[in-house]
Each structure stands twice: as structure tokens, then as C-alpha cells.
Amino acid sequence: MSRSGDNTDTYDVVVIGGGPAGENAADYAIRGSGRTAVIIEDQLVGGECSYWACMPSKALLGAGAVLEAAAGLPGSAPRVTSTRPDRDALLGWRDTMTSHRDDASQVRWLDGAGIDLVRGRARLTGEDGVVEVDGRRIRAREAVVLATGSTASIPDIPGLRDAAPWTSRDVTAVVEVPERVGVLGGGVVACEAATWLTDLGATVTMAVRGQALLPAMEPWASAMVAEGLRARGVDLRFGETFGHVQRVKTRDTGPGRVHGGPVRISLTGADGSRADGLEVDEVLVAAGRRPATVGLGLETLGIDPTQPLDVDDHLNVAGRGWLYAVGDTNGRAPLTHMGKYQARVVGDVISARAEGYRLDGPRYRALADHSAVPQVVFTRPEVASVGMTEQTARAAGIEVRTTELDIAVAGSALVRSDYRGHAGLVIDALREVIVGATFVGPDVAELLHSATVAVVGEVPLDRLWHAVPAYPTVSEVWLRLLESLH
Ligand SMILES: Cc1cc2nc3c(=O)[nH]c(=O)nc-3n(C[C@H](O)[C@H](O)[C@H](O)COP(=O)(O)OP(=O)(O)OC[C@H]3O[C@@H](n4cnc5c(N)ncnc54)[C@H](O)[C@@H]3O)c2cc1C
Ligand SMILES: NC(=O)c1ccc[n+]([C@@H]2O[C@H](COP(=O)([O-])OP(=O)(O)OC[C@H]3O[C@@H](n4cnc5c(N)ncnc54)[C@H](O)[C@@H]3O)[C@@H](O)[C@H]2O)c1
Question: Do the interacting molecules here have an ipTM over 0.90?
Fold first, then answer.
């Protein structure tokens, strides 16, 4: 860092937002060089993922999955007295995995990586490369990277905001388990949260305005998740949304505690018809997220802050050579691993530009964002998918061939006597390569990377035939899938 006469601190790279995307962008932009970087963060270093999203949600989901797996294997089943996790131990484990919302270890990591930290809320000033934090000016010589993440959307439904509903921050920080929960939405947050809330003993009703959960997934995968949630007692109201919400008394009790008295929800059909009334102890809004771009000073650059930032494959904001955006804030693939991937790309781009290299080669482009995004939904059963679904492949004009089958191999029978799983591939029939894959079942998350490698590597099917899965593993489903295409 250097300070000029006008009291402006100067770094090579300035990153706004210290979530997973921001941390990695700063690291990759200076690693192994003499360059300097600063991260400006107004909450906790580590971002949403570490304290309010991926880490607490997966910590809350693990114990129930392990208990169900043990109950599904004859040798261990007699030892399992309940498949419901111990509430206090589970919440304690969640607190451990979120470091009790203390970011000291992440700050130490920044220090070790040679990255400075400024606490505060940053704004762009309208001057190229200059940001402002609490009256302090910071200038970037090479680049400003926006990595401000996203915030939960709360739809404009009469009475909803006034009822102080839970968002993902509350449900991941759950301390008081509400007896009855009404969930708005049928996406990833809704499905995962319904799973751990029922593990914790809550009764859950989900209002899903469409006809399927997880609309971006293969329809058969969504149907299996719906079946799994119903088996846990979740009341799924497809084609319904909240019409009106009323809470007897709202209380400011803090995250994860019930925010007041009982809540009356009128449910309406998608066509506005009246469906039903519902009384719950808490409402969870899980209706998507929007990029955190408002209040960032984007309008000083003539950029509309209400729209996702328009970036190219170098993650460069259109028309501004010095400005980049990575992670949820650009809306391309709002997942931690994709934000970190974009951060690696942007770090390499900034380094190459600083050192005068041309941006030749795929290393400098976030190509996976377009057609190879992997995702795991940690419901029971789990859903693991990468690339295109049959529908998106057809919409892209690909001549599609598909195959799908139950996962029923020696490896799956061995891990659970009640194993139920399904797998499917989407093939580009002309090029004979896999463009999409989906697995549903216990622990399928660990099958996913093999599919990601096949999709990204565009491995021809007759070459893939020689990738022999070990016996007896669940991976033998690959052999069954390839045989079905023969
Ligand atoms: C409940 C839940 C579970 C999830 N589970 C998964 C999962 O299992 N796997 C997965 O891949 N993804 C998951 N996600 C998505 C994942 O959390 C996000 O994709 C990820 O956190 C995005 O990282 P980011 O760095 O872009 O933003 P964030 O993690 O949101 O970090 C942005 C940071 O910027 C800071 N900031 C914002 N504006 C400013 C400003 N003006 N000045 C200074 N600082 C600012 C914020 O305080 C924040 O710390 C989940 C999301 C939710 C809600
Ligand atoms: N395991 C994971 O990878 C994981 C886990 C949780 C969250 N995430 C990410 O976090 C982000 C947010 O997840 P999410 O579940 O909130 O969003 P989502 O986009 O997955 O689902 C939003 C749901 O809300 C519904 N909805 C939206 N507006 C509505 C309205 N006005 N009225 C009624 N219903 C409405 C949609 O129909 C959909 O069912 C996603 O990008 C997701 O991928 C990932």
C-alpha cells in the first residue's frame, strides 16, 4: 500500500467483498508477485457461505443423513434408536462449523496471503479505479473487483415484510425450532431447509408456485426430492403461493429465533384463486436471491444497479477495463465453487494484464459458467447435476439422446439395503459426448466430479468406455449407463 498527498491509499488490486469469491480473487491476483491487494468487507470475512449459507446448512444436514444411512444397513440398524439428530449437539456442531460467527481465522488467512483488510462499506466514486470507505479514498492501480454477493429476495406480498419472516440467514442460524413452518418457494434453499427443519422436529408446509420443486433440475430428479420430502411429512402445495400474511405480534428476537406470534397465511392458486388458509409459528421466505449491487455507487459509472452486472468471460464489466465482478454479484452461476472459479480466472486475468501478457488461452475465460456448472442439492435423496438438462440441451439446438436408469449395482446394494437412486445422461448425439448428467440418491455428491470431467473434457463415449469403474462401488452406474447407450 502506498499513500499519496491527497490522503488516498493505493493498492494494485482492490476487492469489495470478502466472501469466497473476493478472497480468492485477491489471492490469485497477487500470488507469487510483488503486487498489493486490499479487501474491503463490511460484515465478516468469509461471506455468506461461511456463516449463513453453505457451511451451516451442510452442518445441519449431515447428522440426519448419517443416521438414515446407518438405519438402512442391517448390521447397524439395530443400534440406531432414532433417525432424528440430537438437537443441542447438532446446533452446537453448526456453531463449530461456522466458528461461532467469528472471522478471526479467515483474517489470519488474509494476513498470511499478504492481503490487507479494511472493515467498512465500500462505494465506487465515479472516478476510474477509486473507491471510498467511510470517507477514506482507496485507489486501484490495476483493478477493482466487485465481489459483493447477493441478498435474499422478499416478494411483494401483502403483510409479508411486516411479519418479519425468516430468510436463509435465520433458518441456517436456527436456535429456536418453530413447531410449524410455512415455506415460500420450492428451490434449493426451501428443499434443503425443509429437510433439516423436519430433522429438528418441525412440521413444514411448502407453497411452490410452479408444478415442480427445483425447477432447474431434470423433472425426474425433482419428483424424487418431492417424494423424499413427503415421506418426511412435508406438505407440498404445488401451484400455490402466499396471498396475504398476517402476524399477531412481531418481535425483534434476532436471527434464528421465532420472530413473534403465530402467522396466518392465505394461500392462493397461481391464477389468483383462493386455495386455503394456514397457521404457522414461523414463515421462511426462500424465493431466490438478488445480486448485492444496490448502494455500491454503480450509478456514478452510469451502470443500472438494479440489474445483474453485465460481465464478459474475463469477468470484466462491459466498457470498464479496470472493473471486474465475480461470484453471486454477476448472477452467472450463484454457487460458492463457481464464484471461486471465476475468482481464479479474474486473478489470472489481472496478473496477465499487469505483467503485459496477452489473454490467450482458455485459462483466462470463465467457460464453465456456460455449460458445465456442477451443483449438489443436499436433500434426501441428494441431487448431483452438471451441465445441461434434456430441456436446456434441446433449447440450445443440440440433437439430444438421453439415457436414464435406477442406480442398482453391487456398490449401492452394499452401502444400504434400502438404496434407491437414479441416474441420467444427456448426450450430444452428433458429437457423441456427454453434455449433462444427473444423479439422485444417497451420497451421489461424490459421483459428480467424474461427470464434470467427462462434460468439460468432451470425452467421446467410445473413449469413456475404457474408464473402468472399480468393483464394488456406486460408480459402476457409469458402466450401466454406457451399456444402455451401446
Ligand atoms: C442457505 C444457503 C445455502 C447455500 N449452500 C450452498 C452450497 O452448499 N454450495 C454452494 O456452492 N453454494 C451454496 N450457496 C450459495 C453460496 O452461499 C453463494 O454462492 C456464495 O456465498 C457467493 O459467494 P460470494 O463471495 O459471491 O458472495 P458472499 O458470500 O455473499 O460474500 C459477499 C461479501 O461481500 C460483503 N459486501 C457486500 N457489499 C459490500 C460493500 N459495499 N462493501 C464491503 N463489503 C460488502 C458482504 O458482507 C459479504 O461478506 C448457498 C446459499 C444459501 C443462501
Ligand atoms: N446446495 C446448493 O448448492 C445450494 C443450497 C442453497 C442455496 N443455493 C443457491 O442459493 C441461491 C438461492 O436459492 P433459493 O432456493 O432461494 O432460490 P431458487 O432460485 O433456487 O428458488 C427460488 C424459488 O422461489 C420461488 N419464487 C420466486 N419468487 C416467488 C414469488 N414471488 N412467489 C412465490 N414463489 C416464488 C421460485 O419459483 C423457486 O421455487 C440459488 O442460486 C441456489 O443455487 C445453493
Answer: yes
